[in-house]
Amino acid sequence: MTSPKALAILTLLPSQRRDRIVDFLRRHGAVTLQQLAQAMDASVSTLRRDLDALEADGVLDRTHGGALLRQQHYSTFEPDPVAAAELSPREKRAIGYAAAAELEPGQSVIFDSGTTVMEAARAVLERRIPLVAVTNDLAIAQLLGSSPQIRVHVLGGMLRAGSNTLMGDEVVSGARHIRADVLLMGAHAVTDGMLSETEPEVAAVKRALMQAAHSKRLLVDSSKFRPRAFMGICALAEFDAVITDTGLPTVEAEALAKAGLKLTQVSVA
């Protein structure tokens, strides 16, 4: 049975539906067809035609399986945390569960800031295992701190405007004194074997966290394999494992295997 939301969208004129797509892109910067289909409850074929029309009008640029808003400087565009959490929620949840399942009681774990790593933190709580946690994300710190079995260390620094992320020299300096067992990290974009972020301060923190852990695990949904953002972080080959979803293009999966990385692809029901 077609949902009321889908019926409402189907009754929109094409121009009205495309206005909604443009509004969605203005909030997120870049999206895949699957993300749009989930958010708008519309068919992929309909949305593909809409994106083609918007590209012809000069509104956006098509990518493999999605689109970038042309008016935005994509490489420096960062969606707000609420908007970011709306993208691929089922994939992020499944990736978080897979990451949490691989942690062992008593380990020291760095939780990078971000919506996918937040899902891993939620899954850790459900497992009820003792951990020593380190994070530069205030929301993740508060969540993990609700468990009496988890000792939480917060890397202090400057709060990034409009987010829960702490960054700056204090975070980088604090990370230099840490030798954790595991790092769970997210990224804005993965492109041609490189990770990148939109701001130099965020990239600097991630580079410092990479040096602070023995096992480095990247948590990214398949939509993050997209055009490069402004600041490079590191080569993908520096990680020990990548946890993503089954939407990952075959060419990307083959590249990860060639780099010798442990690849886990979770399916979404």
TrEMBL record:
Limits of the HTH deoR-type domain: 14-69
Key word Heme present: no
PROSITE patterns the record matches: HTH_DEOR_1, HTH_DEOR_2
Keywords of the record: DNA-binding, Repressor, Transcription, Transcription regulation
Origin superkingdom: Bacteria
Pfam family, one: HTH_DeoR
InterPro entries per UniProt: Carb_Metab_HTH_regulators (IPR050313), DeoR-like_C (IPR014036), DeoR_HTH (IPR001034), NagB/RpiA_transferase-like (IPR037171), Tscrpt_reg_HTH_DeoR_CS (IPR018356), WH-like_DNA-bd_sf (IPR036388), WH_DNA-bd_sf (IPR036390)
SUPFAM superfamilies in the cross-refs: NagB/RpiA/CoA transferase-like, Winged helix' DNA-binding domain
Protein's name according to its UniProt entry: DeoR family transcriptional regulator of aga operon
